[in-house]
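Fold it.
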Amino acid sequence: MFAKILNTAVIKYPYDFSRLYEENPYTRFDLSVDLPTLYSRTEDADNTGASIVEVVFAPEPSYDPATQKVVINDNPTLIDGAWVLGSSVVALTQTELDAIAMANEVAQLGK
């Protein structure tokens, strides 16, 4: 996964080859070259100073699946020189808790 970055701000995430083609419709790209290198050769990169960086996934945090869920963040953040896509633990809504309770009741009836 990649992101388009300007300084330390995320411009576009996720960023992939289709986005590169969309932004540069009249450019032919050598597909044997990696995405960050291809982007660095574009007019947009020259004009804006933006770059393409690899994004790594942070380990999933611990949580209680009976009362919580993990939500992946919308954008990566710069942590110790690496762009990392983290996640947050949030409480289940009452609707989600009710659905779990209903599913458990149905499962018990089926036994």
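DSSP finds four helices and seven strands in the chain.
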